Amino acid sequence: FAKYFLIAFSALIALALIAAGIIAATFNPNNYKPLVIKLVQEKKQRTLAIPGDIKLTFFPRLGADLGRVSLSEHGGSAEFASINNAKVSLALIPLLSKHVVVDRVVVDGIAAHIKRFKDGSTNFDDLLSQDESGQQIKFAIDSVHVTNAKILLDDRQNNRQLAVTNLNIETGKIANGVSSKFDISADVKDSNPVIDAKLAAKSGFSIDLDQKHYVLDGLDADIKGRFADFTDLVIQLKGNADLKPAAAQFAVDDLALKMSGKHAGQTIEAKFDAPKLAITDKAVAGGKLSGNAKLTEGARTINVNFAVPSFKGSPQAFTLPSLALDVALKAAQRDAKAGISGTLSGDLDKMWFTSPQLRVALEGKEGNRPIKGALSTPLTANMKTQEIELPAIALAFTLPNPGGGLLNLKAAGKAGIDIGKHTLSAALKGNMDDSAFDARLGLSQFAPLAYTIDLAIDRLDADRYQSKPTVAATAAAPEAPLDLAALKDLHASGSVKIGALKVKNIKASNVRFDLRAAAGKIVVSPLAANLYGGTVAGALSVAASNPSRVELRQNLQGINLGALLKDAIGKEPVDGKGNLQLDVRMQGASVTQMKKGLSGSARLELRDGAVRGVNIAQAIRDAKATIGTIKGGEAPRTGTGSGNEKTDFSELSASFRIANGVAHNDDLTMKSPLIRLAGSGDINIGEERLDYLAKATVVSTLQGQGGPELQALKGVTVPVRLSGPWTAIGWKI
């Protein structure tokens, strides 16, 4: 029997070899290239190009060497994808039972140009149509080798350009339930966010496509380069994972994540360890989870540590018994620690989590001033609706006041976060020192952060919270430049009401304004308040441009101008009650440059006041003896005023055109019982100097009020040149 079997088997082998030889001699796959190209054109409206000869092998593997292959865009001639060289070999016998066993796939020089359009469609949607044959073919691949691949993504929906280049992939067998391994490396560049990095990863793996089950065994991955604002970034990930994404089940063990990098002059290091963490349909369990992060910037360091003890439970009911997150800050004058603690329970099926009480404790010191306080609140989080609630916030903090001493803050309220809508809202009532407030704060979007504000305060002394440099430091240091960098990334809107306000020593009441901040500019409009016996209404805008710009439009009615100027600048160059209209703009890198760059217009209307720095009536009185007797070549009468001298008036009006910090006036009208005054000239605001020609006309005076000198000059117009710094105005008759 054995003899006949061997003879029959040998005959079959010989027959197979003869058949393979006949097929190899007579079959030329290149004869079918036109048919394949035609079918691709008809079915997909794409042009398939195979310019070289297809080479076949038949035993023991069916193989093909395609050479270069390219495929056009749908309905066009532009290239969608190409391969420099592709080789594929198949096992013959498994094909008879609809098992496709690919012995080896070798691909070199893949280049694909993928596009996603603004409506979300892509330039390969037509290639994803389902096979209509209804037949199911099982497949397996013994190995894959991909070299020098390049994939370009033009994502017009998200305005980004992604390039994966130098992509190399090598795998072992790819088949359901079979253990294998992979090794991958690539260069990745993206425009939104900015990415320029190298990726390398290797791991054992197994897949089960029927069960959608994926296992990674001994994953070792590295990413090095730049991500967004992070440079010198190094990320290392090691561990094992067992994943069933469709069932929301996973298990990881010996997971270790390390990261280091630089961001805005800061050095950042972070680490996370998960010895064991598993979520299945029956159990939730974890070993001790821990992590830490360190941020260093000059002499300032921030350390963050967190820990979760071992825990067990079910997806429907589990509890993390003791969460702990500690943050420590050390700087030149500050040493503070904050700790967050509490328990957390949850239901993974409902994606619902709760904590009866989370607590934040703060302690430390700044210089010799203490820092201490606490915040507590319950927490509920529904991750299906993506909503988080903090229903009962209570906080009390004692903090260093930038203006000296301590700042005491107490408040209570609630807050909510809607992750899906990218919004946050909070309502808090409380006290900051002697100020009572009622605040509704929020975020209308998370990226970039956009704040909303609705704030009411009964009284606020803002000067109390302003740092006060020493006289020696102020005299020694040059003028500090304006720093408006915080405005560049600020997005905010809202309204503010303050019953009584003091800022820069200016006092106001019933202050009300709306604000909007975006694109490096903040606009306060409308702005209204009661101010020094009158009212103010208008608008203010500040732009963090280069140089910085400020625009001010204000209408002040019935104000006591002298009291306002004295509080604002410590001087009273003009006193009186009346109206002031301002429409000015200024720009510069410092306050002095702002004053020198002032432009716009102003109008002043006052009653029952005085112009300080010179007494024009007295100057004329002193010069009366020489009026009309000065001979050619003789010097006119001169003098210097002082802060104690003034020219009283019953009415004063003037308008100004302002350019480069100089206010020009040519319509001054001033009335007093002794004189009438007109004039024109310049007020140099940037230099705090005056250059003005006043024309004083002596009018009828009451007996004794102007003295006999002025009575003798009744009806005479006397020109008076006023010049010099505001603190010592010189006059010349």
Structural write-up:
This protein has a 42-stranded mixed β-sheet that branches. The protein has 733 residues and is mostly beta strands. It contains seven helices and 42 strands.
Concise account of the structure shown:
By secondary structure, the chain is mainly beta. 10% of the residues lie in helices and 61% in strands.
Q: DSSP helix count? A: 7
Let me know the average pLDDT. Answer: 85
Coarse structural class: mainly beta
Quaternary assembly: single chain
Largest sheet data: 42 strands, mixed
Percent strand equals over 45%
| Number of E strands | 42
State the low-pLDDT regions, or none.
1-7, 629-633
Q: Can you tell me the overall shape?
A: elongated
User: What is the radius of gyration computed over CA atoms, rounded to a whole number of angstroms?
Assistant: 41 Å
Percent in helix: under 10%
The N- and C-terminal alpha carbons lie at a distance of 146 Å
